[in-house]
């Protein structure tokens, strides 16, 4: 059995040598234990501006099992992961972050879970105590909303997962441009399980997900995977229209029977309320139109500048 390890990297010069060393040592253990017979590393350099590319070129010259895809610019974490998935040749494929926040020691037990008959092993973090209260709470809200909106996503699982070849082949048939990878695998199906791990601090370098990017990622995730926000628009729109109808009949009755001077509040308050609701819903609809726009353009999801030690891409669709 051949194991592919996919690592997306963006400006990871500080931590990458440590990560690769650790994985190299571990992979010898897995081979010795006969968990697998061969290990390949598919490392995607997502347009790093630091010495990541240089380091990778060096490593891949010395070691043919280190395969490198270099993007022409920064295309983002999801695109990098996708490229890894498209080029990985293994029978079992695992993806993890470059910063050792996804403990590689877990791969051994993930392999065991695969042997027990699972096709997808999701690694999820046990607790979020190293995160700030803010990140913790926003993450909770995000997973809660995702679940409510019908996207079946494993709580506290990011992109540390192991899949078998048949799962990956099914996944690669998903043609969408707006890919939210962690919510796509549950749709693929097949037997799966979750393993839990502690999540240490980033070993070196700094996070590439500041608040703005996190928010973008969350909105993208939601609108890529759920039409519920659109439905909420219709339902609330309907309710507000019914209310307006009531208001209308009420004002007509008052006009006919009472001739009262219309109050300022009852004119102005609904004005602002309706204005706000309309803008919000236009925004939500806009999000989806934006998605349709990017899908229709069907631009390449990433552009490769250089490949080292790599064969052809697995073309499925
Ligand atoms: N990453 C990437 N492209 C980007 C941003 C991040 O390939 O535009 C990689 C990064 O190198 C790391 C992984 O995605 O391997 C996760 O990023 P990070 O550790 O910064 O996220 P966090 O763990 O803080 O959520
Ligand atoms: Mg990280």
What would a concise description of this structure say?
The chain is an alpha/beta fold. Helix content is 50%, strand content 16%.
Ligand inventory: uridine-5'-diphosphate, magnesium ion
Number of strands: 8
Q: Which CATH architecture of the largest domain is right?
A: Alpha-Beta Complex
Quickly count the domains.
2
What is the string of helix and strand elements? EHEHEHEHEHEHHEHHHE
* CATH class assignment of the largest domain: Alpha Beta
Question: How big is the Rg?
Answer: 25 Å
The average pLDDT is 86
Task: Describe the 3D structure.
The chain is an alpha/beta fold. The protein has two domains: 2-205 and 300-308, Spore Coat Polysaccharide Biosynthesis Protein SpsA, Chain A, CATH 3.90.550; 228-297. It is 50% helix and 16% strand. The chain has ten helices and eight strands. The chain has helices at residues 16-32, 52-62, 77-87, 106-115, 133-148, 165-171, 181-188, 211-225, 228-258, 265-297, and strands spanning 2-9, 38-45, 66-71, 92-95, 120-125, 157-164, 192-197, 304-308. Strands 7-5-6-4-1-2-3-8 form an eight-stranded mixed beta sheet, with helices on both faces. β1, α1 (16-32) and β2 form a beta-alpha-beta unit. α9 runs antiparallel to α10. The protein is elongated. The model has no long low-confidence stretch (mean pLDDT 86). Uridine-5'-diphosphate binds next to β1 and α3.
């Amino acid at each position: 059995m051949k194991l592919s390890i996919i690592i997306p990297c963006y400006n990871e010069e500080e931590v990458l040598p440590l990560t690769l060393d650790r994985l190299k040592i571990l992979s010898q253990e897995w081979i010795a234990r006969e968990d697998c017979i061969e290990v390949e590393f598919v490392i995607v350099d997502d347009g790093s501006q630091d010495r990541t590319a240089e380091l990778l070129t060096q490593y891949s010259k010395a070691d043919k099992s280190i395969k490198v895809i270099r993007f022409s610019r920064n295309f983002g974490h999801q695109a990098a992961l996708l490229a890894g998935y498209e080029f990985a040749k293994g029978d079992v494929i695992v993806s993890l972050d470059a910063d050792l926040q996804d403990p590689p020691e877990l791969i051994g037990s993930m392999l065991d879970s695969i042997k027990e008959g699972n096709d997808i092993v999701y690694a999820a973090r046990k607790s979020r105590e190293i995160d700030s209260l803010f990140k913790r709470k926003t993450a909770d809200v995000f997973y809660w909303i995702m679940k409510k909106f019908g996207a079946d996503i494993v709580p506290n699982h990011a992109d540390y997962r192991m899949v078998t070849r048949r799962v990956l082949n099914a996944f690669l048939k998903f043609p969408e441009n707006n890919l939210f990878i962690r919510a796509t695998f549950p749709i693929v199906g097949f037997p799966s399980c979750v393993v839990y791990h502690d999540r240490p601090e980033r070993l070196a370098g700094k996070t590439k997900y500041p608040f703005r990017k996190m928010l973008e990622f969350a909105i993208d995730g939601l609108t890529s995977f759920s039409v519920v926000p659109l439905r909420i628009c219709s339902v609330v729109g309907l309710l507000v229209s019914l209310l307006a109808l009531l208001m209308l009949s009420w004002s007509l009755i008052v006009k006919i029977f009472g001739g009262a001077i219309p109050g300022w509040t009852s004119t102005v308050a609904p004005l602002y309320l309706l204005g706000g609701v309309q803008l919000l819903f236009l925004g939500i609809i806009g999000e989806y139109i934006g998605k349709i726009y990017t899908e229709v353009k069907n631009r390449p999801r990433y552009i490769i500048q250089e490949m080292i030690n790599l064969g052809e891409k697995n073309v499925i669709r």
